[in-house]
Amino acid sequence: MDKRFLAKIPIIEASLSTTELACKCTGDKVVEAKLYGEKNELLLLYLFSKSQLLKGNTKAEVRMFIDKTDYITQDLKSQKIKWYTGTLSSFLNYYWKGYSSTATTETKEIIANYFNSEFNENDPYRPIFDFQNKVLAERLAIKHLKITKPIDELMETVPAIPSNFMEWAENEALLKSRYIYYQYSPKVRVKGFCTHCKCDVELYKPKHNAQIECPNCKSRVMLKSMGKSKHVSDDKYVCLLQKIDTGFIARYFHIRKDYQSHYREPKFYCSEENRDFFDFELQIKCYEWGLFKQKSVRWKDDEYAYRGNVVVYPYNINEIEQIIPYAGLSLLTKHEPDFAFGFNALMDDYRAGIFNGERLAKVGLFRLAQDYLQRRGYFYKSPVNKNGRKLNRFLGVENDDAKLLISADVNQQELDLFKFCRKNGKRLSTEQLITFRDNHLNLDIFKEIIEIVPVGKALKYLSSFKMAEKDIVYRDYLNSCKELKYDLSNPFVAFPKNLRERHDQNVETINEISLTKESKTANSKYAKVAKRKDTLNQYYAFENNKYFIRAPSDAGEIIREGHTLRHCVGGRLYLSSMAEGQTVILFLRRKEAPGTPYYTIQIEGNRLIQCHTFGNKDRDKSNINGFLKLWQKYLDRKVKTSEKNRKVG
Questions:
Q1: Looking at residue 388, what DSSP letter applies?
Q2: Which of 218, 233, 292, 643 qualifies as a FRET site for 610, CA 20 to 30 Å off?
Q3: Partners of 589 in the beta sheet?
Q4: Averaged pLDDT for residues 189-195
Q5: Is residue 125 helix, strand or coil?
Q6: What is the pTM of this model?
């Protein structure tokens, strides 16, 4: 719309009918419509303030120009000409229910006639709202097209997926997704089905999750019992590099293989999620497949562009290495069929003139290259010294250590462990590094362990266990031995046969020592608890052939009761109240185990307040409720007897 032309149109003041409407209007705005032009092609809406009209001010605050294709609003309160693009609903507060009373009948008819719509007394602005919403949608579509058109043109340059890509993704990138399913049977020999070669095979004493070689295809497979493996699914991210006229493209796919109940015909899924376009100077533009502006799912700019470890398609690497010749791609992609590494991080280094990924791959340190290229977070610490020209300085080790590390193909944790041991005068062997890796030990926890026991013996000892979190259990066991001042130079102490059992015994001993100290302190502070014992037993003690109730002997016994049953009776509040006679704590025990806490009772007078067992659980009515009812009747009789004796006295 021509703003200069619109600004020259004479401004009208409120008509008499509009002014009179201000007295009846329930809204804060009053609208007057006028037509302008030789063919009345322009609709003008003047918006007046109700409060100003009531004061006699007949000047409009804004006026809106509407033609058949567009609309715009002029601010009439400002000395300089100002324009707004807001809709009429934004000025009228569309959601306010009384907006229909803001226009005269004449104005409503002008609006209806202009849009060739039916006259609606209660919804006069509907034609304007619909028109403006349509204009907004067209504006938004044009705005979005400016963003999406260049992306779509770029996506048209993407080549087709190679014919063997899907087969490679399923069989090589998911190399370890191979299983033999079998139905459990007590028989020594059972039938199974290999998901890789699609053949029935015979198994000898199979064990769920054990890894074996398939008798038919000789590939490495994992055994799965059908009764235990109902939700088996393997997934990975893969990357396809393809040459284009402007450089090359990195296409990232998420692949997944589901076995579930259809293990004979597993379902394979592959979805492309990201595309990174590199020009010949390795400048990058990143895109992702996702929801664009809450409108549709399509390719759009990737705001975060994080890429983790991916398996790179290896069969066209020669073409890509013509553009990035020193990235080490051929080495990294051909190391193992399912070897994953951070291609995005590799490119970041390449742009900066750093070739650490290639250097590590060349010497055979693929695991270290993998960890180096999967760097995350602000506090990431590189495992290598980029300024070291010689290999040993590059790795931060002695001259004769580099070959050993290469032979073990160490990762970052294993390299850190080796350096830690070297610093403390111990040189790990290749076998020891591999043992550390195969047992999936945590580096920080293992460092604590080998500060107490020799590293070689610790590795040999831990490798003899299959329990979960064995390094954590062993670390805690050693620390408990130190706290109890046991002789860890004795191998029977340092390396017990039953680790979990000995660990639990030490914990109980430490807790008992702590309880003893706490009990002594409590007995001294709350000595009145022990003095109340006889008095309380005379009044509250009760028993039958199965249970009995008694008072605690001292404050320490209350603390032990709370510790054993895992509830709060041993806390300061209960001990203080018990000592001062404000409440009564009693123990309910079984006659078959009189020394073992069973239920703890809190009573005030003859009123039972609480009766809790292990974990603060309430009493079980089917268990002790009958006994408690007998006890309550016993207490009630004692009260009646004491009152009768008092009256006689």
A1: -
A2: 643
A3: 548
A4: 94
A5: coil
A6: 0.75
